[in-house]
């Protein structure tokens, strides 16, 4: 029997056997996301309203949320949406929610050795298929949740890179790290890891060029110099060349 699965690491979706269910309009997806982020715990109606509307909600907000919950109950066969005095809760297996599975896998990887931990981090990062919560667009609480999930993803990328470098596998990092640095050029720890990766695969000139490009970017856009970690990586690479 196919199980119901929920996706938050990209568009907000529910799937059965790989087939996407018709959740309905965007605001209903925001309600679903808020319930999933607090899976198996009551979510006050006020928090659901905050997840749906940016700024002041309309007078009809409470009734609109209740209507979306009613529709979700009819759509999500295999999960239960219940209500109590404090709000609504969605009851389901945490492993059915990709964001919760991702966090569980990252936590488990931290307890493993470099080889098995790196492999598990690869699996965890493969769960992502776009910006968290579909790049949000909902209310403030969903925007905060999306930022937190993205930070967790970047931290996992960094931890995976550190492990692959310790394992002597820098060639596996060049393409994914370069893409992540391109999307996050101000994140100095990522830049430092990519510099080290370039150096270990024999592309020393690119490592030094990356440092200089990042130094100029930080100065021009943020008015700051590279931090201690990035400077230390740069100096270590220079010393190794001497």
Automatic annotation (TrEMBL):
* CDD domains named in the record: BTAD
Keyword check for Nucleotide-binding, yes or no. Answer: no
Return the annotated DNA-binding positions: 1-101
Kindly state which keywords UniProt assigns to this record, in alphabetical order: DNA-binding, Transcription, Transcription regulation
Is the Transcription keyword given for this protein?
yes
Pfam families, per the entry: BTAD (PF03704), Trans_reg_C (PF00486)
- Which example biological process does GO assign this protein? regulation of DNA-templated transcription
Domain named OmpR/PhoB-type is located at 1-101
Identify a single GO molecular function assigned to this protein: DNA binding
What PANTHER family is this protein classified in? TRANSCRIPTIONAL REGULATOR REDD (PTHR35807:SF1), TRANSCRIPTIONAL REGULATOR REDD-RELATED (PTHR35807)
* Family in the record: Belongs to the AfsR/DnrI/RedD regulatory family.
Q: Which named protein is this?
A: OmpR/PhoB-type domain-containing protein
- Per the UniProt record, the source organism is Nonomuraea mesophila
What is this organism's lineage? Bacteria, Bacillati, Actinomycetota, Actinomycetes, Streptosporangiales
């Amino acid at each position: 029997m196919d199980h119901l699965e929920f996706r938050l690491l990209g568009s907000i979706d529910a799937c059965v056997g790989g087939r996407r269910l018709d959740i309905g309009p965007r605001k209903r997806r925001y309600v679903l996301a808020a319930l999933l982020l607090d899976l198996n715990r009551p979510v006050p109606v006020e928090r659901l309203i905050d997840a749906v509307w940016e700024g002041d909600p309309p007078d009809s907000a409470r009734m609109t949320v209740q209507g979306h919950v009613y529709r979700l109950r009819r759509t999500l066969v295999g999960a239960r949406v219940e209500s109590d005095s404090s709000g609504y809760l969605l009851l389901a297996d945490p492993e059915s929610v990709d964001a919760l599975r991702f966090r569980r896998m990252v936590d488990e990887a931290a307890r493993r050795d470099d080889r098995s931990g790196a492999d598990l981090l690869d699996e965890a990062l493969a769960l992502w298929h776009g910006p968290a919560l579909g790049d949000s667009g909902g209310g403030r609480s969903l925007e905060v949740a999306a930022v937190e999930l993205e930070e967790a993803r970047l931290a996992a990328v960094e931890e995976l890179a550190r492990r692959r470098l310790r394992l002597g596998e820098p060639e596996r990092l060049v393409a994914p790290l370069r893409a992540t640095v391109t999307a996050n050029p101000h994140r100095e720890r990522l830049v430092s890891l990519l510099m080290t990766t370039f150096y270990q695969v024999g592309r020393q000139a690119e490592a030094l060029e990356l440092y200089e490009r990042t130094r100029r970017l930080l100065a021009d856009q943020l008015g700051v110099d590279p931090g201690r970690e990035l400077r230390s990586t740069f100096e270590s690479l220079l010393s190794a060349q001497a």
